[in-house]
Write a structure and sequence with these properties.
By secondary structure, this protein is an alpha/beta fold. The protein has two domains: about 55-300 and about 415-545, Metal-dependent hydrolases (TIM Barrel); about 300-410, no CATH class. Helix content is about 30%, strand content about 20%. Strands 1, 2, 3, 4, 5, 17, 22, 23 and 24 form a nine-stranded mixed β-sheet that branches. The longest helix is centred in the N-terminal third of the chain and has 17 residues, at about 170-190. The radius of gyration is 23 Å and the shape is globular.
């Protein structure tokens, strides 16, 4: 007798093959049979009524490293169709970490990933020091979905170099100690090694995240551990100074995949992302395995000037970054500070989040009633109507409201024709949800549902079968995740049941369910009727099934 039988489903199996009508049977958390002939008695039978049954989404770019220690269910992703999450991207991890460095690590995460410091301080369960300790802890908690973890460069660097990690190049001896830590992490079950060279990635007080201080020699030494291990993926968020040919050299040295993030379309410099994709394609033609991590979502941030993440990539913003208390207001009001911002914005940069597109920056919510006429209008529109400079309009309004004004900026990926070409590029990987990070700014944890609804149904940019393959089978192959990503006998029963006529993500809403009552943005699922992780149902048509369900697994074994 089967544990579960789903009948009369439109099966999209994750390979990209055409959909077919049939049944799917589950025994012991694995798929026992699939197709028109699958059947027989079962403890639970579900009539899908022609809904699409597909593998669960594999979210390859999340930042749940801290959250999973207090929220192992991670229902904020399973409720959106995700059955496997890869954490530790960009090198922003919480292990290894000495007890005396915990506050520094939390303050860096607060800055670089937009996390609430109060939530981190109250929520993180510090039952670990080393990366193997961290994996042992995750192995013992009731995970709601499958989790694979990168060992992250900035944490490794901080563990070895302490306060000097974000300030200088490492010595050969320090690089050797870092190599040992990465080796230990891979041996313990890391999915690979991650880092960032992006100038947008700054830690507490505007100091660069530690990995940004690494030389190319350091990166080569640390990624060589992947060759020694024979498994694992190198993930890097690329700054402008990091060349694709250099990353191809790394791929050639270690024979492992290199995932290059975050390739987002910039309307002020539209060729750059395609130049990178062309270079990645050329590397693949030479037998390397490089992929460009792209997003199917417009990069839209909601923020105040108390935490102005989109602006912090500007060099001229540094005085405001470093200021504390009342001095922040003095900096923002300083004419010389404002002129420096204008001068920098006069020269758009492809790796910068904000490039002075004032028509894409809107006043979302004012704090003082007399300013209500500005809500819903762009800063560019307000500036034109008042014949004022848009930077002055933004800063003056924020200062008048004690920096509580809420702005929303669409920064990148707003040109849908260009984004459609990126999504269909043969060497792109659809990802970049950033789930678990920037919780008060945006939420793209529902990126997979957005791909299926907006790009497949509404725009017809790709077929349903292609989109499911991008979200499941392709991701499993890139990261060497065995037994997942496809609907076939013997595979894990990670399943998603949805209505292709209504699937998508709902409007953003603010909820207050983080430790210390901290807020996060949420985008509820539309058209999702069920999610199963290893055969256990965690979501139904009404949302997450109540209670913590220990359905997930810590993934430690990866294919070559």
């Amino acid at each position: 007798m089967h544990d579960l039988l789903i009948r009369n489903a439109r099966i999209v199996d994750g390979t990209g093959a055409p959909a077919r009508t049939g049944n799917l049977a589950v025994d012991g958390g694995r798929i026992a049979a699939v197709g028109a002939d699958a059947g027989g008695p079962a403890r639970e039978t579900l009539d899908a009524g022609g809904l699409v049954l597909a593998p669960g989404i594999i979210d390859t770019h999340t930042h749940y490293d801290a959250q999973v220690t207090w929220d192992p269910a991670l229902a904020s992703s399973t409720s959106l169709g995700v059955t496997t999450a890869i954490i530790g991207n960009c090198g922003f991890t919480v292990a290894p970490c000495r007890a005396e460095d915990r506050d520094l690590v939390m303050r860096n995460l607060t800055q670089v990933e937009g996390m609430s410091l109060e939530a981190l301080r109250e929520g993180i369960r510090w039952d670990f020091e080393t990366f193997p300790d961290y994996l042992r802890m995750l192995d013992a908690v009731p995970l709601g979905l499958n989790v694979a973890a990168f060992i992250g460069h900035s944490s490794v660097r901080t563990y070895v170099m302490r306060d000097e990690a974000p300030r200088r190049a490492a010595t050969p001896e320090e690089i050797g100690r870092m190599r040992d830590l990465v080796r230990d992490g891979l041996a313990a079950g890391a999915v690979g090694f991650s880092t960032t060279t992006s100038p947008a990635h700054n830690g507490d007080g505007g100091i660069p995240m530690p990995s940004r201080m690494a030389t190319e020699e350091e990166l080569v030494a640390l990624t060589d551990t992947l060759r020694e291990h024979g498994r694992g993926t190198f993930m890097l968020t690329k700054g402008g100074g990091t060349r694709v040919p250099f990353l191809e050299e790394i791929a050639a040295r270690n024979g492992r995949p290199v995932v290059i993030a975050a390739l987002l379309h910039n309307s002020t410099n539209p060729r750059v992302v395609f130049d990178d994709l062309d270079a990645i394609a050329a590397a693949n033609a030479r037998g390397r395995r490089l992929l460009g991590a792209v997003s199917c979502c417009p990069l839209t941030f909601e923020f105040t000037l108390r935490a102005p993440y989109p602006l912090e990539g500007l060099d001229a913003w540094k005085p405001a970054f470093e200021a504390r208390g009342d001095s922040v207001r003095k900096v923002l009001a300083d004419p010389s500070f404002r002129q420096a911002i204008r001068d920098e914005l006069a020269h758009p940069a492809p790796v910068r989040l904000f490039n002075g597109e004032w028509h894409k920056l809107h006043v979302t919510q004012v704090a003082i009633a007399r300013h209500a006429d500005r809500e819903g209008r762009s800063v560019g529109e307000i500036a034109a109507a008042s014949r004022a400079d848009p930077l002055d309009v933004m800063l003056d309004l924020a200062l008048a409201e004690d920096l509580a004004t809420v702005f929303t900026s669409t920064l990148l990926n707003s040109d849908e024709e260009a984004v459609g070409r990126m999504l269909n590029h043969p060497n792109s990987l659809v990802t970049l949800s950033d789930a678990g990070a920037h919780l008060t700014f945006f939420n793209d944890a529902g990126f997979g549902l957005h791909l299926l609804g907006h790009w497949v149904r509404e725009l017809g940019a790709m077929s349903l079968e292609q989109a499911v393959h991008r979200l499941t089978g392709q991701a499993a192959e890139v990261f060497g995740i065995p037994g997942r990503g496809y609907l076939a006998p013997g595979m894990a029963a990670d399943l998603m049941l949805f209505d292709p006529a209504t699937v998508g993500r709902g409007p953003r809403r603010r909820v207050f369910d983080l430790p210390a009552g901290a807020a996060r943005l949420d985008t509820p699922a539309l058209g999702l009727h069920g999610v199963w992780v290893n055969g256990v149902r965690v979501t139904d048509a009404h949302g997450s099934v109540g209670g913590v369900r220990a359905a997930g697994r810590l993934l430690r074994e990866f294919s070559a």
